[in-house]
Write a structure and sequence with these properties.
Helix content: 40-55%
Oligomer: single chain
Protein name: Enoyl-CoA hydratase/isomerase family protein
Strand order of the largest sheet: 1-2-3-4-6-9
Family: Belongs to the enoyl-CoA hydratase/isomerase family.
Pfam family, one: ECH_1
Number of strands: 9
Order of helices and strands: EEHEHEEHEEHHEHEHHHHH
Number of helices: 11
Strand content: 5-15%
């Protein structure tokens, strides 16, 4: 792997985010916590929201590729961290807003090489890339509702455009998983390859784009993002705000505790004896 110069724009990133410059202006970004399936610490969320502005202004980069070290792409937040406070959740929401806006406004193409499990934020990162190459057997899972929070990273923004509303609602409401092969079948990812060929295919596509007409490629991306994706930003803002509120709720607290105790979650909002803000006045009257 190449060594970045001390004054390189990417030299400030920690060892958990590896940066490698490839020929022809291709930049390879590797999420590097393989022992934890590349799950993210809170500082990593911030770094991975800032990096796209650096990619966009780096004169040496024409195309970026993002992948994960080892056998996984990224499995979202590391659940071993302390439970986030509401202030932590708000900060995370702002970092996510910055990441998504940077990705949509970045003219340079981004390719995701989904070499293994992509869960939560990891799936968001994989699908928000302009071109996604997934391992045929990679496990893809949004999973937010399973832990008692809204699917707020990216779902309302990108899923309906890629897979349609019927598939979106099924996978988002149920938190069902799917393989890379199934994701390609429904249009959620661009293409699939055998696991060992995923990164090579992604880099080959990146190299081809890097040697093409940069103005034509970047303006094509800009015109596709304008309207189709930017018009959905209010939906994404709403889902992110609701997800942030969930972090302060009893369901999320129960989901975290259940995970630590290796048992199914018993969500307070689903218990018969629990009063819910979603109950209608008539339902509340019957309960009394």
């Amino acid at each position: 792997m190449s060594t970045l110069a001390a004054d390189d724009i990417f030299s400030r990133y920690p060892k958990e985010i590896l940066i490698e410059r490839k020929p022809n202006g291709v930049l390879l970004i590797t999420i590097n916590r393989p022992e934890r399936l590349n799950s993210l610490t809170m500082p990593m969320f911030k770094h991975l929201s800032e990096i796209w502005e650096d990619v966009d202004r780096d004169p040496q980069t024409r195309v970026a590729v993002i992948t994960g070290a080892g056998r996984g792409f990224c499995t979202g937040m590391d659940v071993r961290q302390p439970d986030p406070t509401l202030d932590d959740a708000i900060e995370l929401m702002e970092d996510e807003r910055r990441r998504i806006m940077s990705l949509l406004n970045m003219d340079k193409p981004l390719i995701s090489a989904i070499n293994g499990p992509a869960v939560g934020w990891g799936l968001s990162m994989a699908l928000l890339a302009d071109i996604s190459v997934a391992a045929e057997d990679a496990l893809l899972l949004d999973g937010h509702t399973r832990i008692g929070v809204v699917a707020g990273d990216h779902s309302s923004l990108i899923w309906p455009l890629l897979a349609g509303m019927a598939k979106t609602k099924y996978y988002q409401l149920t938190s069902a998983s799917l393989t890379g092969a199934e994701a390609e079948r429904i249009g959620l990812v661009s293409l699939t390859e055998p696991k060992d060929a995923v990164l090579g295919r992604a880099l080959a596509i990146a190299d081809d784009l890097a040697q093409g007409s940069q103005q034509a490629i970047r303006w094509t991306k800009r015109s596709l993002n304008s309207g189709w994706l930017t018009n959905a930003l209010p939906q994404q803002e709403l889902s992110a705000a609701l997800e942030t509120l969930n972090f302060a709720g009893a369901d999320y607290t129960e989901a975290r505790q259940a995970f630590r105790e290796s048992r199914p979650a018993q969500f307070p909002s689903a218990r018969r004896d629990n009063h819910s803000v979603f109950d209608s006045p008539a339902t509340q009257e019957v309960a009394r």
